[in-house]
Amino acid sequence: MERTLHRDYYFSPEIFQREKERIFCREWFCAGREEELPEPGDYLVLEVAGESLIVVRTREGDLAAHYNVCRHRGSRLVLEGCKGSFAGAIRCPYHSWTYALDGKLRTAPFLDEKDGLTKTDLGLYPVGVESWGGFFFLNLTPDEAQVRGYHLPTQLGGVPERLCRYPLEQLRSARRIVYEVEANWKVILENYNECYHCGPVHPELCRLVPAFKQRGGSELDWERGIPHREGAWTFTETGTTNRRPFDGLNDDEQVRHKGELVYPNFMISLSADHVTTYTVWPRGPGHTTLLCDFLFHPSELGRSDFNPADAVDFWELVNRQDWAICENVQRGMQSRMFHQGYYAPMESASLDIRRYIKEKLAADERR
To answer: What is the value of pTM for the model shown?
Structure first.
């Protein structure tokens, strides 16, 4: 068995700050669904790695993102609220400097070039935005990413090809649950990436998907998908639903469950009729916010008898079991006796986070 990360990686404020700078400020970070900004001028204010950011739909219909800070004196451009709509421009509430939705400086009252104002040099600080499958991702250091040629497809790897038959871009959210979890973000990702815990922690889930507890979940074929019990084909208590499977799925995808983890913060679980996603928002070494969205096809959302409760209630049960055990791990690691744990062979996917973190932080051999 191989050792896990040292306990400092789950508690140290200094390491968390290094993660903020070297991971959350430089990697592509899943931040939401494009459907949240349907019209030109619609905006969201998000906090990523301690930075306040504005994501806005431009007049041309594209997404743009900027740091929420005026180039004049540093005022926040949006003072309150997390969403709204700009009336054609972004105006600073302090001195009324005004920016186009794409971030270019339009006007600075009573100032012009003779005062040393060069509009082209004073646009809003940019944030990179790229999209896949109806999700948008942000990069807080876009110039560096451009120089490195580090675009979203590089980070996604083979995920789009493996999920190409799911109509992700067409789906719409029917429900969102926000969880506040007293655990380090890496504990949550490690937990998602193995099913060694499924037998002890998720009895209801294992009744639906017996493969999750067989041999400690060591023989799961995530490429093909994981089979449900006889007669079941989706993630609900009964394993069935009145919703139709998505069109275009292959035979396996109509009856099997798939899942993907995209570092650093995106988890996606796919059933034949709905998709559940998690965006992971680290708030500190011991606290993480998770946004859980339940996505369905518009043809099902439009039905008079549409009710997502069978999927939402089952996932809510499984989620709360997961968050409780993650918090228990975080508490247990505080023991003066704990320095490092171990990955069992069936936790090989969780071992990837150790490689990922050490590569990004260039950790020394002592860790």
So the answer is: 0.94
Q: Per residue in 70-82, pLDDT tens?
A: 999 999 999 877 8
For residues 215 and 139, give the distance between their C-alpha atoms in angstroms, rounded to a whole number. 40
SS3 203: helix
Which one, of 277, 260, 365, 265, lies nearest residue 20 by Cα? 265
Give SS3 for 246.
coil
Torsion (CA) 138, 38, 70, 116 in degrees, nearest 10: 100
Structure tokens at 103: 């971030």
Structure tokens at 84: 């709204």
Instruction: Identify the burial level of 178 via C-beta atoms within 10 angstroms of its C-beta, where 0-12 means exposed, 13-18 middle and 19 or more buried.
Output: exposed
| Cα–Cα distance measured from residue 142 to residue 128, given in angstroms and rounded to the nearest whole number | 5
Three-state DSSP string of 128-164: EEEEECCEEEEECCHHHHHHHCCCHHHHHCCHHHHCC
Candidates 110, 146, 108; CA nearest to 130 is: 146
User: How would DSSP label each residue in 312-350?
Assistant: HHHHHHHHHHHHHHHHHHHHHTTSTT-SEEEE-GGGHHH
In whole angstroms, what is the distance from residue 27 CA to residue 359 CA? 13
Q: Element (H or E) spanning 99, and its range?
A: strand 98-99
Tokens 């931040």 — which residue?
A: 31
